[in-house]
Amino acid sequence: MSSAQPHAAIPDFGALISKDRVHTSLYNDPDIFAAEMKKIFERTWVWVAHTSHIPEPGDFVTTHVGQQPVIVNRDRDGKIHVLLNRCRHRAATVCETRKGNARAFVCPYHGWGYKQDGALRGVPQPKSYDDDFDKSDLGLVALRVAQYAGLIFATFNEDAEPLDGFLGDAKPWIDLFMKQGGGYPVAVGGEHRFWFPGNWKIQLENTTDAYHFPIVHASFLDSLDSQAEDMFAFLEGDGYVQDLGNGHSVMVMMPELVDLGADLDRPIPDRFEALAEDLRKNHREQDVRRIVRAVGGTGFNINLFPNLACSMAFFRILRPISVAETEIRHIALTMDGGPTAANQARLRLHEHFQGPMGFGTPDDADAWERVQMGSQAGPDLSIMLNRGISGDGHGPNGSNRGDVSAETGMRAAYQMWKRMMTA
Amino acid sequence: MNKKNGITFDEAIAFIWAEADVLDRRAYSTWLDLWADDGLYIIPIESDVDDYATVLNYIYDDARMRRMRVARLTSSNSMAATTVAETVRTVSRFVKTGSENTGIEIRAAQHLAEYKRAKHRLVPATLDIELRRHNGKIKMVRKVVTLASRADGIQGIAYLL
Predict the structure, then answer these.
(1) Does position B2 have pLDDT exceeding 60, yes or no?
(2) Is the Cβ of B157 closer than 8 Å to some Cβ of chain A?
(3) If A47 and its partner were Cys, which of A55, A308, B41, B139 is the partner (CB 3.0–4.6 Å)?
(4) Smallest Cβ distance to B156: which of A332, A352, A356?
């Protein structure tokens, strides 16, 4: 018998993606999911927090990069760290709470203690270790960290291109998104967390899918006044979807709400008139108009591959749990130090649509669950992504850009998926 | 207690049981009539909050939002609500947490079992309900449904708790 073992065949992931469709197995093949965790979530920049989650020294939040639990914290000098939430001794998590403030992290199992920067501070009963026991080698594993406009990203990959380059053409859109602070810094203001029984890419696609809106969200549209309903009738408008490179894309639904700092002389919508009147007690008219124009968020969604969306008025974070299970967070945004009435209006607007009991999210989640169930049928069929493909190559500087209901953003994400999965 | 306007513990329990029955039967227009005009229906994310208006909740509904919510759930335009979830809920462990001349405050446990798409799930919660008698009728002034799983991810819910 030969001692040589045959090499397992390396799957041809590239063959699963064509220009205008993807293979159904991307939703339901556990082997593809396992490869995605290695080749995408452990190789690229993954969003982990916003700077307002951890404003003070010692502040931390716990989250995940792919499937790996991490701590995101700010040390006494203000530096941000992203550390694997795993004791170097016998692997217990060193932090169980979702957020807080800690001067150190102490493993509850055998008492190994770590500093805010992850360095191993000390272990109980050190004399049982041999002389070669080197604490300096046994800190919490640290990831590379970078931030842009308050968005904190981390990566396991020392060779990943700098975050600035990775975000590239998405950066001007992120800058525009942050104008919804209305003159104040944008801060996180609570979040809705829910999960659905389906693959993470089904949600990824949805962020730049205007096509579903009037169908899936008919009951939300029914709940709006006529002005707001007209605003959400964007399939008839001049919006568009544009590929921003590296899997990122933007879907502009309401072109008049791209720059919230401009056009402050526009009429105030009826639904915000009471808020404006309240703000006039303490603010100049121009400030009132800036705040009110920002209170409903922007008119566009940015999809940042692989796990963050800056979506109208909130951050959407996806976390792949398994091939057919995904956690979603919808993080509300507020104006940090802004008027209470405006911030409460933002929270009520968020509750209206988002979350597991909002007027929109449960219907989205139901649609995604049905996609996952339906994908068990016809395993050799493809997922069609060809809407608006004639706009590919015809956007600014030869970019791909289609009408508002084009599937341009999905094609952008899957081309990045292909690039990373075949690298 | 003012005998003319007050609400007894037994009356409060009977009201809360009747409300649970209304919700399991999805008789949502009847449910709207159980509310005082200034009532607030709240499903919080955080517990022990002094003023839920200042924080993000799952639900923070005044009368207008309640009407809109019921319209959505009964419109057949919501695909989540169209795939009906059967619910069976039991409310018990009643504790009187406050009373005044015209009302009463009750804390209770709610065990809700849901059945949808061949799957059961449990949605346990603590209820804090404030009732007030108005023109002789008992009305809900405040209902806070604090889910055991409030801080963690939950699947979408397209019925009323």
Answers:
(1) no
(2) yes
(3) A308
(4) A356
Q: Are A363 and B78 a contacting pair at CB < 8 A?
A: yes
Q: pLDDT (tens digit, 0 to 9) for every residue of chain A, 423 residues total?
A: 445 555 667 789 999 999 999 999 999 999 999 999 999 999 999 999 999 999 999 999 999 999 999 999 999 999 999 999 999 999 999 999 999 999 999 999 999 999 999 999 999 999 999 999 999 999 999 999 999 999 999 999 999 999 999 999 999 999 999 999 999 999 999 999 999 999 999 999 999 999 999 998 888 888 888 888 888 888 989 999 999 999 999 999 999 999 999 999 999 999 999 999 999 999 999 999 999 999 999 999 999 999 999 999 999 999 999 999 999 999 999 999 999 999 999 999 999 999 889 999 989 999 999 999 999 999 999 999 999 999 999 999 999 999 999 999 999 999 999 999 999
Would the CB atoms of B68 and A347 count as touching at under 8 Å? no
Whether cis (ω within 30° of 0) applies to the bond prior to A306 is yes
Domains of chain A are 46-148 (2.102.10.10), 169-421 (3.90.380.10)
Query: Which residues of chain A are within 8 Å of residue B46 when distances are taken between CB atoms?
Result: 190
Q: Both tokens of residue A170?
A: 């998405």
Q: Give me the pLDDT at residue B76, please.
A: 82
The residues that bridge with A73 in the sheet, in sequence order, are A60, A81
Q: Give the residue carrying structure tokens 């914290």.
A: A73
User: Between chains, do B58 and A327 touch, taking CB under 8 Å as contact?
Assistant: no
d(CA A195, CA B157) in angstroms, rounded, equals: 11
Q: CB of A213 within 8 A of CB of A301?
A: no
Q: What's the whole-number average pLDDT of chain B?
A: 93
Sign of the CA dihedral A227, A229, A231, A235?
A: negative
Answer whether CATH 3.10.450.50 is correct for domain B9-147.
yes
Contact of B58 with chain A, judged by CB distance below 8 Å, is answered with yes
Domain boundaries, chain B: 9-147
ipTM of the assembly?
A: 0.92
Distance CA A120, CA A112 (A): 7
What type of residue is A259? Answer: D
Chain B residues touching residue A278 (CB < 8 angstroms):
none
The H or E element spanning position B26 is none
Q: Which of residues 328-357 of A touch B (CB under 8 A)?
A: 328, 332, 340, 344, 347-348, 350-352, 355-357
Facing A222 at nearest CB: one of B45, B72, B81? B72
The closest CB to that of B79, out of A194, A359, A367, belongs to: A367
